[in-house]
Amino acid sequence: MTSAYPIMSRRYLEPAPARGLFGLGKRVRDNGDLPRPDAHEVMVYRVDGQYVLDNAGLGNDHDHVVRATHVSMVDVSRNVPVVIQMKIPSAEASDFTVEVTFACTVTDPVRAVRENLNASAALEHYLRSHRKIFQLGLGYKMLQINQMRVDVSAQIMAYTAVRPPTVSGLTVTMTGVQVLTPEELEKFEQRRREKQYEHLIGSQELGYNHDRESSQQRHEWDMDHLRRQHQHVADLEDQEHVQLIDLRTQRGKQFLEAERTEFARRELDKALEAIGGDSYTALLYAHTNGQIDAKELAAGMRADRDRRLELEQQDRERQREADQLELEWNRADQLRTASESREDRLRAASESREDRLREANEAREDRLRAAREVREDRLRQETMGREDERHRLELNLDLLRELAKRGQLDMVNVNVERIIAEVSGTGDAALGSHQSSPALTDGSDASRYSSTHTNSTHTDSTHTDETGGDTISPTVDGEFDGPEATVREEDDD
């Protein structure tokens, strides 16, 4: 858009001429005096210092149109892009060009005309009021334009979000931020791309040449390998042909040699069959064929006879040695058998003796164990009997002390000598006897008395009989030990 947005055009209007005879008719504006608005444009007239909006409803003969001195055409399109360019200094002697695009919509055309609104100037002033934008490029060189783009875009978006732009008669929305590439950087990048392209083309050309040379070299290697392979196959075929010829020649020689050997063997078989394995016959056969003379025949016969005698003598000696060796082996077997039998008898006797000794030791140990257990049982029973008897005597003594304490000892017949004998372990009631006679008796009554003694304490139980007297019944561990004794206390009254 032009920098004059949203007022697209302005025009001064001359006074409308009068129509009719002698200028006495109605005044009407000519079509040439007024601009022709598009569908997205409206006109605002200035009439007597006031601004009147024309929404395509005022004719050329309307009073406002006739008396208007100025007319302005306003763009009322929605979201009209307004681009603001600013120069931001860099770390080098160059500037970054920042383009910020706003989407603008006219909401009050009359106000826009009255205030002579210029959206570009208002938005540029809005951006320049934020000084930090002009400090962002100081930390970047021209080659760092991409990093700078990120920071500038983030800063402007944050600024417009925190402090949205406000322009009278317009609604404004920031739609984009762009940092233009400087011309010198564009030329530099273009030269660098050209150099890169040249380098890439050179590299590819070198690669193509290298591939062509490598392919040609591989082709030569393959051809050489095929030639060597074909030569190797030809050499192998020639070698196999020579080996086949040698093999056939060798087989022919072997066949001839086998034939000669077979012929000689057949001749030898015939000779042996004629001789029959007899040396004399062989000598005669040789003499008959003329192979030896008579002298050699006689010498051979003597040598054969001597050899036969020597062989017979050797056979007799070997037989005698074999008989002697067999006799010695038999004797050794008999001795070994006798020794093994004696060792078995000795081993059996030793094992039997050891078994008897072990059984005797076990029996003796069993008897000793049984005797020890019997002795221990007897000692334990005697100890328990003595303890029971001592306990019983202590109870009797406690009973006597209790009777003496109450002054009732003269009412009971007490065998003092027997008690002393029991305590001292002499007499018929010695310690360890469980059938001693009672130490306390009453001549006439056979009532039972008992005394309870538990944990070295005594509890007296008193009962009232028919005559009003007290009866003391001592017991030991809840049982009666010996005959019953009854002590009665007569009423003094």
Descriptors:
single chain, 493 residues, alpha+beta, Tetrahydropterin Synthase, Chain A, 3 domains, 4-stranded antiparallel beta sheet, 3-stranded antiparallel beta sheet, 8 helices, flat, disordered C terminus
- The secondary structure category is alpha+beta
Strand line-up across the major sheet: 1-4-2-3
Q: Proportion of β residues? A: 5-15%
For the report, how would you describe the main beta sheet?
4 strands, antiparallel
Quantity of strands, as a count: 13
The end-to-end distance, rounded to whole angstroms, is 151 Å
The helix/strand order is: EEEHEEEHHHEHHHEHEEEEE
Alpha-carbon Rg, integer:
78 Å
Low-confidence stretches: 426-493
Question: Can you tell me the overall shape?
Answer: flat
Oligomer: single chain
The helix count comes to 8
Measured as a percent range, the helix fraction is: 40-55%
The structural domain count equals 3
Average per-residue pLDDT, rounded, comes to 78
Describe the structure.
- This protein has 493 residues and is α+β, with helices and mostly antiparallel strands.
- The chain has 3 domains: 1-77, no CATH class; 79-181, Tetrahydropterin Synthase, Chain A (2-Layer Sandwich); 310-493, no CATH class.
- The protein is 54% helix and 14% strand.
- It has 8 helices and 13 strands.
- The strands form 5 sheets. It has a 4-stranded antiparallel beta sheet.
- The longest helix has 113 residues, at 294-406.
- The relative contact order is 0.04.
